[in-house]
Amino acid sequence: MDNFNFYSPTEFVFGKGRESECGEYVKKYSKGKVLIHYGGGSAVKSGLLDRVKKSLTDSGISFTELGGVQPNPRDTLVYKGIELCRKENVDFILAVGGGSVIDSAKAIAAGVPYEGDFWDFYSGKHVEEALPIGVVLTIAAAGSEGSGDSVITKEDGLIKRGTGSDVLRAKFSVLDPELTQTLPAYQTACGATDIMAHVFERYFTNTKEVEITDRLCEAVLITMVKETPRVIADPNNYEARANIMWAGMVAHNGLVGVGRSQDWNSHGIEHELSALYDCAHGAGLAVIMPSWMEFVYKHDVMRFCQMATRVFGCQMNFEDPESTALEGIRCFRRFLHGIGMPINFEELGAKEEDIPVLVKKLGIGDGKRGGFVSLSSDDVAEIYKIAAKASL
Amino acid sequence: MDNFNFYSPTEFVFGKGRESECGEYVKKYSKGKVLIHYGGGSAVKSGLLDRVKKSLTDSGISFTELGGVQPNPRDTLVYKGIELCRKENVDFILAVGGGSVIDSAKAIAAGVPYEGDFWDFYSGKHVEEALPIGVVLTIAAAGSEGSGDSVITKEDGLIKRGTGSDVLRAKFSVLDPELTQTLPAYQTACGATDIMAHVFERYFTNTKEVEITDRLCEAVLITMVKETPRVIADPNNYEARANIMWAGMVAHNGLVGVGRSQDWNSHGIEHELSALYDCAHGAGLAVIMPSWMEFVYKHDVMRFCQMATRVFGCQMNFEDPESTALEGIRCFRRFLHGIGMPINFEELGAKEEDIPVLVKKLGIGDGKRGGFVSLSSDDVAEIYKIAAKASL
Question: How far apart are CA A132 and CA B331, in angstroms?
Fold first, then answer.
């Protein structure tokens, strides 16, 4: 096991109706004004935003607000948010929404006390200081409610880049599974795919004998395989929603990746798809992850057999382990298809002729990238090609 | 899933040689003097204490020290520690040792800013304020490095009682698996048993459909079943030690119990054994836990089948589920015996004729206690009787 630090100081406030308590939690951290940051219409229409405002008002907290965060959140709104916070002397940001809203809030939080351009943090500079943030989560997906990560898209050129720092971890995150019950099935499935991807990116490692981390990864994956079809079949299944929402946090606060190498190539390869076509990140992952697996599985057949047997319940073929590895990948793709995800370029709305553009934007150039299997630009092109033509 | 809060703000500093960094971590929290709190000879003899002191000195931190914590730590030393901290203006306590040392440090930390008798906190009063503490862990067992709990024994009458509060959670915990390599096999096995008990007390619940928590519990248990025999066979197996040490933290920081009822009767029933005979807590648990399981399994046969199949790899007997439930319990007892744990009163050094005394001290009286199966004093007497005569 490699040496590591694990630090997840966020207070998670989980369950029905807990958003009515968010004023209490904000009060612990804010002595001035709060920015409520949110996205489009659903938080407004559902009445959630009003309930959050009422909770803040009841706790004697004054606030300003900034809505309009879009999926694949843009730098342009971040600049606006930074300016607003400075003007209004905001000392706490409350993100009400999903991963895009939280990521946008984190970018603003990092930008406010920083003299330079916040984009520096998305170009390699480490965030040392940020305004404290809180979260009221509305979709189980990105895991941003428990992570120190943020991904922002630069409007100019649609460049999607990430940053990460412990100072960007939320002080508290309210997770009410009921808030996710009104989500369309497609968005629910995209979120579930993202959650599973966060685990897989940590599961495929070259570090041996980290049994505890392996088993924790599998715990989350098995839960997702069981619970996701239940919410697709019945959007009001609270118990299944609750399991998925908590699994989404566990998948990405760092716990299931400690002590070993990770490989985030699938996320990187996908980011170019959602940046170019503005498709949902989860849908892009559904197309990319199994294709990445097919390209790399020979690097460690036994690890793919472990996934196949422990996560998807395949029978191990001891005479032909490779067939078990491939069966596990097929199971994953069938599972994704079963919850309504696209599995190839056509279903996603991507174009095979764009592959050279996608590869170029990823920016590996003549180098290689990856913690499990190191990929060249040519390798990535191959993965896009597999993804373009994938079938069940 | 029940509503819950989960908060584990401790920074975990994991791996080989990390204790040499503890000065850096202490420095973040202490502006005055530090109390180094430890137990008997091993931390001194091994040179660990000197390394810790050097790290503090190198970081410019002044300290005082208090050794002598014994297993089942006593209130008498806690009073001494509180007095010392007040006299020397200590503002941070660094616990160097196992669960007993950490629990003693937590009691001192709670007692220093409190005007009354610290024992109030072990008699039902909630701890609202405490000095910050840090940990350098030397044995994987109690999970106190990641929990807000503390158990202290009152010298007068050997009464063992616990308290719990988020303010007692360590600011940081250094977990270096190498420090555990010199432990005798018996202590290692006691620690492993305690870790598994922390999970089982959360695993047996009446709350349905909390798949994610079930699977996380099983992840820790499966890891312990695999790794414990490996360290008993080879005390220097670093990878197995590392897996156990991290599993020990995950088992008890609260994660594997969220969203549902728990049942801590086995811990309570055991505490009377270790208080009366001063035996190791883990050894007492090895005798009590399977006996408790035999007494309660009919309450939820299917849950015991789940344990049997998922944790111990038993084949499910669909025609006779009860036989599978019992086979799981037998597997657990055989496992404990295999790692060198006692399985009945004689092997533990307890006496059957003391059962009425044990039951009386537990103090259930005419009431009932328990979150999975509610037990009367008579029920507890039955469990002690099963434990007294248990065999493989």
Answer: 49
Span B176-223, pLDDT tens digits: 999 999 999 999 999 999 999 999 999 999 999 999 999 999 999 999
Distance CA B231, CA A157 (A): 55
List Cβ neighbours of B267 (8 Å cut-off, separation of 6 or more): B197, B201, B285
- Please answer whether residues B182 and B46 qualify as being in contact, where contact means their C-beta atoms are separated by less than 8 angstroms: yes
Interface membership of A366 toward B (CB under 8 Å): no
**How many C-beta atoms surround the C-beta of residue A360 within 10 A?**
12
The complex's ipTM works out to 0.96
Of the candidates A1, A18, A211, which has its C-beta nearest B3's C-beta? A18
| Most distant pair of Cα atoms in chain B: their distance | 68
| A:B CB pairs within 8 Å | 126
**Interface residue B242 vs chain A (CB under 8 A):** yes
| Chain A, window 207-226: residues with a beta carbon less than 8 angstroms from a chain B beta carbon | 208-213, 215-216, 218-220, 222-223, 226
Q: Exposed/middle/buried for A182, CB within 10 Å: 0-12, 13-18, 19+?
A: middle
pTM (global) more than 0.90 = yes
pLDDT tens by residue, A237-282: 999 999 999 999 999 999 999 999 999 999 999 999 998 998 999 9
State the Cα–Cα distance between residues A75 and A69, nearest whole angstrom.
Answer: 10
